[in-house]
Amino acid sequence: MKYRGSCHCGRVAFEVEGEIDGAMSCNCSMCQRKGSLLWFVPREQLKLLTPESDTATYLFNKHLIQHRFCPTCGIHPYGEGSDPKGQRMAAINIRCLEDLDLTSIPVTHFDGRAL
Ligand SMILES: [Zn+2]
Predict the structure, then answer these.
(1) N or C: where does the chain have the smaller number of CB atoms within 10 Å of the terminal CB?
(2) pLDDT of residue 64 exceeding 90
(3) Ligand 1 centre distance from Cα of residue 86 (Å)
């Protein structure tokens, strides 16, 4: 299945391919504030429809994850990083996807605060 997602103003837009079998709610200092629901896919399944240079990046802690956000409207649609095997991954904030019934997605809680 292919989903389309964007920030609020549309400066950052993308397509992402895959099956959403669940999402993660993380309680780390960043995710708790954002309220994002994350779905992890290999980075190549995420295709930006807008220039990557229109996306701003926030780094904190060990700088392992690039938290991408829109510099105009401030929405954080996705992040990027590597899994333990070194594969490039994207963490999609499924709250930014179109035509998705969020109540149908099972959410698991991740204790990111403990990392
Ligand atoms: Zn925006």
Answers:
(1) N
(2) no
(3) 30
Does pLDDT of 26 surpass 90?
Answer: yes
C-alpha of residue 102 to centroid of ligand 1, in Å: 21
Contact call for residues 4 and 13 (beta carbons, < 8 A)? yes
Tell me the three state secondary structure of residue 44.
Answer: helix
Q: List the domain boundaries for the chain.
A: 2-114
Distance 54 CA to ligand 1 centre (A): 9
The CATH class of the 2-114 domain is mainly beta
84 CA to centre of ligand 1 in angstroms:
31
Alpha carbon of 89 to ligand 1 centroid (Å): 22
**pTM exceeding the 0.85 threshold for the entire prediction:** yes
